[in-house]
UniProtKB/TrEMBL annotation:
Topology of this chain in the membrane: Multi-pass membrane protein
Domain ABC transmembrane type-1 residue range list: 88-281, 378-579
Natural source organism: Cellulomonas composti
First-listed, main subcellular location of the protein, grouped into a coarse class: membrane
Cellular localisation: Cell inner membrane; Cell membrane
GO terms classed as biological process: transmembrane transport
Name by which UniProt lists this protein: ABC transporter permease
The entry's keywords: Cell inner membrane, Cell membrane, Membrane, Transmembrane, Transmembrane helix, Transport
Family: Belongs to the binding-protein-dependent transport system permease family.
Cited Pfam families: BPD_transp_1 (PF00528)
PROSITE patterns xrefs: ABC_TM1
């Protein structure tokens, strides 16, 4: 029996179809990839150039350009003042100490809230995030009501002290460390630590030699963010420290609004930028020296129930005591975080010498000096924050994707390091500088006959500028931790660039994207600095309304402001709790990115 095979003649392509030779197809594919990566770089840089660099340059020009000529004599004048050096020293001391405490307390919290499971964990995560979103002025008032003579903690005599400011800064930034480090920690493959334990290492030694180095990129990112937030703190320092304990940020505000000295404000803005650039450089080198491909899993790894008693069948030295120690530290911190929030609720319910809901009933009214009710302002805040978060996710996601690449050429690596530092600069620029810069530069910008200062998009864009670094720092450590050989294998098997991103990167980075989204939404919801300059009178956000109510005389206005602050805190806790709930949902793509 003879088998014969017949080869079919190749089918001719349809008439009018252009056929590319294999070499030309490869060249076409490389050209398309180059174009897409160029757009991924150009879009974020263009966004930051138009809505960050240009307003800041315009604001600084008002202080350094006199009669059309560049005048830098303000540097000598400002640095000749002893007050300037004292302000710079206080800024560095407050930010440095608060950052160290936030990291020391936040790492145990990240372990308990992201590697251990227990009933009510989602509620605790939401509670931890609430302080980060509260307006800084409100938190300053809440802290001071705790510490004044006659207050619940008045016996500590901490009102108006350096320790009170540091405690308030830790109160704000604890969530940054917990969520930043926890986003990577919950994805680490526990087998490396288990192997160290099998070889005889104690739980503490296994953590110190295996897990901690793997977490170093996330810790460095969270620490740099915390330092920037502390160094640029405004409302909290202004309320708690007054003129005795100021920062560069509060000094810029004083020079701009009280003395109208734009030259001094411009000099201090440059000083703040230098400090921020130095911090970013140090943090970048720390991350670069320790970043490496990590074993990450698509699902949450190594999560065990948190119990007071050791699980039956486990031997002593299984890390149970270490977990209980981390849980005890976390519980103590959560209680301390809850004290100012509880005090805020209690004060909002106090009406003269009695208890009542009068301040909450007043939220439906339009207070004098405010054109909308608190509920209307709350809806405006939610709408603006959602739009700002969407913009930040697109811009920050592209930045993180570009920065996660590992080019072989030194020039390309230096370019990525520079881009990394530039993207972080919005966190280190004074909100006063950015707000005034928007007002000065958005009237017919670049010669266009349009006044963007009246556009409803200006506030979400300004909030997105601040939220972009949060998205980058939340996603980038995980993207950089992915072994590049996984992408190379997928590409070798014929997967295109988009499919590699969808099948290799996205399953691992989806959950951190959800965490970054929640953090960006929280930051946008409570943003006050730039928004106070840009919000239209007929559409103020909730933090702006709260600030106006606090500034009005009378206990009723103050009580309404506290009630509005409770509403803002509950909105934040509710949004974060929903995100946490959806993160653990099965079936379909949840907000947290779990399939």
């Amino acid at each position: 029996m003879t088998l014969t095979t017949t080869r079919r003649a190749p089918t001719a392509p349809p008439e009018g179809t252009t056929v590319l030779a294999p070499g030309r197809r490869r060249a076409h594919g490389r050209g398309l990839r180059t174009l897409l990566w160029a757009l991924a770089v150009a879009v974020p840089l263009a966004f930051l150039a138009v809505f960050f660099a240009w307003p800041v340059v315009v604001m600084l020009a008002k202080g350094f350009v006199v009669d059309g000529r560049l005048d830098l004599s303000g540097f000598a004048d400002v640095f000749a003042r002893p007050r300037t050096w004292r302000i710079v020293g206080l800024t560095l001391a407050q930010a440095g100490l608060a950052t160290a405490l936030s990291v020391l307390l936040g790492v145990p919290g990240a372990y308990v809230l992201h590697r251990r499971s227990f009933r009510g964990r989602a509620a605790v995560r939401a509670l931890v995030t609430v302080p980060f979103v509260l307006p800084t002025v409100v938190v300053g008032v809440a802290f001071r009501s705790l510490l004044v003579e006659g207050g619940p903690l008045g016996f500590l005599h901490l009102d108006g002290t350096f320790a009170a400011i540091v405690a308030a800064l830790v109160f704000f930034n604890y969530a940054v460390v917990v969520r930043g480090v926890g986003g990577l920690w919950e994805r680490l493959d526990p087998r490396a630590e288990q192997a160290a334990r099998a070889l005889g290492a104690s739980p503490w030694r296994a953590f110190r030699t295996v897990t901690l180095p793997a977490l170093a990129p996330a810790i460095a990112s969270s620490a740099s963010l915390t330092f920037l937030f502390c160094a640029t703190a405004f409302g909290t320092v202004l309320v708690l420290g007054g003129l005795q304990f100021g920062t560069i940020e509060t000094e810029i505000w004083v020079q701009t609004t009280q003395f109208l000295d734009l030259r001094a404000a411009a000099v201090l803005s440059v000083v703040q930028l230098v400090v921020v650039a130095g911090v970013l450089t140090v943090a970048g080198r720390a991350r670069t020296g320790r970043e490496r491909a990590l074993a990450l899993g698509g699902e949450r790894q190594g999560e065990r129930p948190l119990t007071l008693r050791r699980t039956p069948g486990t031997a002593p030295g299984d890390g149970h005591a270490l977990a209980l120690g981390a849980a005890a530290v976390t519980a103590a911190v959560v209680v301390l975080l809850a004290v100012p929030l509880v005090n805020l609720v209690v004060r909002s319910l106090r009406v003269g010498d009695r208890w009542g809901l009068d301040h909450y009933a007043a939220l439906s009214d339009e207070p004098a000096g405010v054109t909308v009710s608190v509920w209307t302002a709350a809806l405006t805040s939610l709408r603006v924050a959602a739009l700002a978060t969407g913009i930040a996710l697109v811009v920050g996601g592209l930045v993180a994707l570009v920065l996660s690449r590992r080019p072989r050429r030194p020039a390309a690596r230096r370019a990525l390091s520079t881009m990394d530092a530039v993207v972080m600069l919005p966190l280190g620029v004074s909100a006063v500088t950015v707000g005034f810069g928007f007002l000065l530069s958005m009237h017919e910008p670049f010669g266009l006959h349009v006044d963007l200062r009246t556009s409803p998009l200006l506030v979400p864009i300004a909030q997105a500028v601040v939220a972009v670094p949060l998205v980058v720092r939340g996603v980038l450590p995980v993207l950089r931790a992915i072994d590049p050989r996984l992408r190379e294998v997928a590409a070798t098997l014929g997967a295109g660039e988009g499919r590699v991103l969808g099948t290799v990167d996205w399953p691992l980075v989806a959950r951190p994207v959800g965490l970054a989204m929640g953090l960006a939404f929280a930051a946008s919801l409570g943003e006050f600095g730039a928004t106070s300059f840009l919000a239209r009178p007929d559409a103020p956000t909730l933090p702006v309304v709260i600030f106006r109510l606090i500034g009005r005389p009378g206990p009723d206005s103050y009580g309404t402001a506290l009630a509005a602050s409770v509403v803002l805190a509950m909105l934040t806790a509710g949004v974060v709790a929903v995100c946490e709930r959806l993160r653990s949902a099965r079936g379909g793509l949840a907000v947290g990115g779990e399939w």
